[in-house]
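Reminder to self: keep the SMILES exactly as supplied, no canonicalising. Ligand is fe (ii) ion.
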Amino acid sequence: MSQQLKQLLGTRILSEANDLKRTISALAVEIGVEEDRLNSIVRGNCDIVETFDVINRMGKKYPIDVSDLYLDEDDCSNGVRVMRAAESAASSRIFNRKDRQGARTPYYDYRDTAMSRMGPFKPEWIKELRVVNDADPENPDVAYNNGHFLHQITFFIGPVNFYWEVNGKKYCKEMNTGDSNYITPFWPHSFTSRDPNQTALILAVTYGGDVRRSQKELYQLGRKGIHNYKLDIRDLNRATTQLIQQHMANENYSAANLVEVARQKGADVDIAKLLDESSEKTIAELQEAAALLNVDVSDLLLPGYNPQEEVVVRFKKKEEGYAFPDAANARYTLWPLARAVKMPLMKGSDIEVLTDEADLTNGFVSSLHSYVYNYGDTAVTFRWQDGDNSFEDVVQPGDSIYIQPFVRHAFGNRGRANGQLFTIRVSGSVNLATQRELSFFADVDRIIESKCWFD
Ligand SMILES: [Fe+2]
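Structure tokens returned for the bound complex:
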């Protein structure tokens, strides 16, 4: 256990004590730890066992969720984590699924690729072992899964059929290298090979978003509670009305109260229309409603429903590639992968590396967690910057990388052929809602707490 982690856990204990309005002295008395000892623990000058003992004692004494206080050791080195192709191969698990005769035969070979406990995704290399000779979504050799909780972005390599089912209707598309998809949680799907003599595989990057991060609370609220939170988002007018009603209930406003508030404020807004599930609300009306409800208009805006975003299929088109950073200084050609407006912080790219120099000045840096897989036939130089230092590694075909947010990175060719990289970025817990709240804080340095709330 590193000294850094002990110090971080100490600051976390201090932060929780502040939240509970306990000074270290008061906390020491209430949890039965000697005050000088507790001060040392908060500074990280202790055995880790003592830190855990304090957290445990706090959990017994106060109505807090102690699992929130356990921070993990950073498993990256200098902001990145590389997984070699051989390590991936060693994690191989073959799973059987039923064929047309009902016999369970090999269907997928799953292998782990780079993942970190700091990152929100679980990217798998999956080889399709079932071979089909048509694109029939009802082919009885195709075994659909039940769908899953995590969002999925898939990158295709070779002749792979992609199958999915939405509202009981099944679909199939023939995919090839560079194509991609996005799958909304719990829609069933499947993948097969069209050619036993070619490599047919996918990189399936599953990841959790805000719902995953709220999982603990949702489990405790139960299914009824979860349903109470669900908006009819596939009907925008109805969902917007539900949201207005939710803000009204939170304010303890009945419809009559809202009419009265509007009258007092001299607001020119039709409350009956705002509460009519079938009516479309204009931005101007939502602004009026927001002012009455003491919220920002952005708190009433929902993404419009696009049925094409249940499952997005995107084929690579050569002409859609663009030069980065610009045509006169083209270091990379980038092809955007499947996008969904409802998932604004999910950005996949297929990257072709054009130069030998892994130049950080013209490299990539993002607020999101990044994942990279070398799917080409050639090794690439991977350079990155963590703090004031820069580092370099060689990423061979089949190697993969996890990169923490704000770690600047770049790639360069090592052989004659251009490097080919599949990359995907998604947000962690710090998404736009978190960012909006955090940015208003009077002191963001003290989020990692350094002092008592009074002297
Ligand atoms: Fe999946």
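Points to follow up:
Residues 148, 152, 189, 204 surround fe (ii) ion (CB under 6 Å).
Residues 27 and 225 are 34 Å apart (CA to CA).
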